[in-house]
């Protein structure tokens, strides 16, 4: 196993072109392996993971202008399939062809659904992403998969190995880091790559919000089912919110730097979410990303209720600065205050929809156009290293972390099997203590 995903020069060259690839620059035009496997002009899709985000991804795929049918659904829970099927059928009755015999339930459901489709949507909790992506590539499928792409170093290595196979097979892979498909970010990156604000030397990226849902424990649930129903609060499934959510902003840091950090240090804690309903994850992380050229980007994410929220990015270059946000803002100025660019926020396309529009356009034309996995894995692993740093209190080096053998995944997937993390007699889960916890 290589110690680094890419050399520094390779990273710069790859990430320099990633904006073009995300923007739709064609790599090649060839007959696609797996597409239109049935011989008809209908693109068959399978939905793997039928929660709210999975239902949203299927909604966007079916909303494209192409001849698409949903032919298979897979989830660990039948009730999730039922809810998703009802929601999608109410809007896309003519594009739904998923009888009960093609609704697959359980940990191995993905293996049954993937062979039936030309394109798979991988939208389960991210802990399963590496094995699902590996199987989809093995089955020669075109792929949309949500971020993040893994939750630990072994998972990242599995994703990268499968990505190499996808590249050889010329399988399109789009990853749901939707800012890469958002107009204000694309326009800003064009100007930054042209040198409008010089070399990026510092910045701040934020995802500060009030937190997410909780599903209380029910009588009769096994520990495995409880953790699966509350996947956000367990690292083998979620990776902590610095990975699951804040990866969006960290990805912008890597994109704008055309590199990944060489080391990460920071701090975090459980300051507000301290009860047994919140598993093991922290509610705040504050880290510094140090890049090879000496630039330092500050990253902050937190889940506190009742305080101000912030989800955006700012960067300072040698000639000017830029502010960006998911609400379509992009404001660029030089240090005299002169405005260099101010993005028009009106009428911008929905980036979640754009991801699917561009993917299915490429598939319909028989083009190999998208390989988002390299930058998605890089940004996911940057977020994972951030968790390693806050949990341990140590400065984490990229190369050392990538080689770590610290899988969080259970030894066995079954409803009566035990995850690696278990509660104590009071129902409280152990969590990381900086200075005591070793992560690699």
UniProtKB/TrEMBL annotation:
Signal peptide: none annotated. Residues 185-322 form the GFO/IDH/MocA-like oxidoreductase domain. InterPro entries: Gfo/Idh/MocA-like_OxRdtase_N (IPR000683), Gfo/Idh/MocA_oxidrdct_glycsds (IPR050463), GFO_IDH_MocA-like_dom (IPR055170), NAD(P)-bd_dom_sf (IPR036291), TAT_signal (IPR006311). It comes from the Bacteria. Gene3D superfamilies: Dihydrodipicolinate Reductase, domain 2, NAD(P)-binding Rossmann-like Domain. Residues 43-169 form the Gfo/Idh/MocA-like oxidoreductase N-terminal domain. PANTHER family: BCDNA.GH03377, OXIDOREDUCTASE FAMILY PROTEIN. This is Gfo/Idh/MocA family oxidoreductase.
């Amino acid at each position: 196993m290589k110690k680094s995903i890419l050399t520094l020069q390779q990273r710069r060259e790859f990430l320099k072109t990633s904006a073009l690839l995300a923007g739709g620059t064609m790599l090649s035009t060839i007959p696609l392996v797996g597409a239109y496997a049935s011989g008809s002009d209908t693109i068959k899709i399978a939905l793997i993971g039928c929660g709210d985000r999975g239902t949203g991804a299927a909604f966007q795929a079916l909303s494209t202008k192409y001849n698409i049918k949903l032919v298979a659904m897979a989830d660990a829970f039948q009730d999730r399939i039922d809810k998703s099927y009802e929601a999608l059928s109410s809007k896309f009755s003519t594009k739904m062809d998923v009888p009960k015999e093609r609704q697959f339930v359980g940990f191995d459901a993905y293996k049954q659904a993937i062979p039936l489709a030309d394109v798979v949507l991988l939208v389960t909790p991210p802990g399963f992403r590496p094995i699902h992506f590996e199987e989809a590539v093995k089955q020669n499928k075109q792929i949309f998969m949500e971020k993040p792409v893994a939750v630990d170093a072994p998972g990242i290595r599995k994703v990268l190995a499968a990505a190499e196979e996808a590249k050889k097979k010329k399988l399109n892979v789009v990853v749901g880091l939707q800012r890469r498909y958002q107009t204000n970010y694309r326009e800003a990156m064009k100007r930054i790559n042209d040198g409008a604000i010089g070399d990026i030397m510092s910045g701040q990226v934020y995802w500060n919000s009030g937190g997410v849902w909780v599903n209380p424990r029910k009588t009769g649930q096994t520990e495995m089912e409880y953790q699966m129903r509350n996947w956000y609060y367990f690292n083998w499934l979620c990776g902590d919110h610095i990975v699951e959510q804040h990866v969006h902003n960290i990805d912008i840091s890597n994109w704008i730097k055309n590199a990944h950090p060489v080391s990460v240090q920071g701090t975090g804690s459980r300051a507000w979410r301290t009860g047994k309903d919140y598993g093991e994850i922290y509610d705040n992380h504050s880290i510094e990303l140090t890049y090879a050229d000496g630039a330092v980007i500050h990253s902050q994410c937190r889940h506190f209720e009742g305080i101000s929220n912030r989800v955006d990015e700012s960067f300072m270059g040698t000639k000017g600065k830029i502010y960006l946000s998911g609400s379509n803002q992009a404001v660029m100025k030089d240090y005299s205050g002169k405005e260099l660019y101010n993005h028009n926020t009106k009428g911008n396309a929905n980036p979640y929809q754009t991801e699917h529009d561009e993917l299915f356009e490429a598939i319909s034309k028989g083009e190999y156009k998208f390989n988002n996995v390299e930058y998605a894995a890089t940004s996911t692993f940057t977020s994972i290293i951030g968790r390693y740093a806050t949990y341990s209190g140590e400065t984490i080096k990229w190369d050392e972390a990538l080689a770590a053998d610290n899988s969080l995944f259970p030894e066995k997937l079954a409803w009566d099997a035990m995850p690696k993390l278990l509660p104590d007699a009071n129902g409280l889960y152990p969590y990381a203590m900086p200075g005591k916890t070793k992560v690699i």
